[in-house]
Amino acid sequence: MPFSSRPFRRFPVQCSVPYHAGLFLTLQPAYFLSFGSVITLLVLGSGPAYGEWVSVSGNVGERLTASTVYVDPDTIRRDGEVVKLWALMDFKTIQTEPSPPHLSVKSQREFDCVEERVRLLALTVFSGHMGSGNAVYSYTDSKDQGIAVEPDSVAKSLWKVACGKE
């Protein structure tokens, strides 16, 4: 004899809540499939939102032929007087030195606002503009001690943005 946790009722019990499931039961399976697809797309499409690059300065440096420096304001992280950010240098023409040939460089830097020092944490060199194309070179170093920020340099422009000295 099977065990049942509910008592058996021979007659339906009257309920004060109306029963409106009729429309739901008459829907075609295609409706359920499309609804499930929409929910799946919404869940899978809700990835991280990436910020936009904001130009820091126009043509910078004599050594760097026609380049624009950008910073991603969404990546600026302050810890006391130390600020980390991601920067992008986009070149108008292909750069062959240092090798390999590239059109843009994306880097993560750490700035000390008090001592005016910069430290390179990570760097990726791309074959295309604005960090697109293939990554042709990559570098990371957590032991770098950093260098002083030089006047009239890319680092100085980024230091001003990171430390709010504009």
Q: Write down how many β-strands occur, each being a DSSP E stretch of 2 or more residues.
A: 8
Could you name the ranges where pLDDT drops below 50 across 5 or more consecutive residues? none
Task: Kindly name the structural category.
Answer: alpha+beta
Shape: elongated
Q: Give the helices and strands as they follow along the chain.
A: HHEEEEEEEEH
Radius of gyration over all CA atoms, rounded: 29 Å
Q: How many angstroms separate the termini? A: 83 Å
- The CATH superfamily of the domain at 54-163 is Surface-adhesin protein E
Q: What's the CATH topology name of the domain at 54-163?
A: Lipocalin
Strand content: 25-35%
* Rounded mean pLDDT score: 79
| Oligomerization status of the protein chains | single chain
Enumerate how many helices there are, as a single number: 3
User: At the first level of CATH, what is the class of the domain at 54-163?
Assistant: Mainly Beta
| CATH architecture label name of the domain at 54-163 | Beta Barrel
Question: Mind summarizing the main beta sheet?
Answer: 8 strands, antiparallel
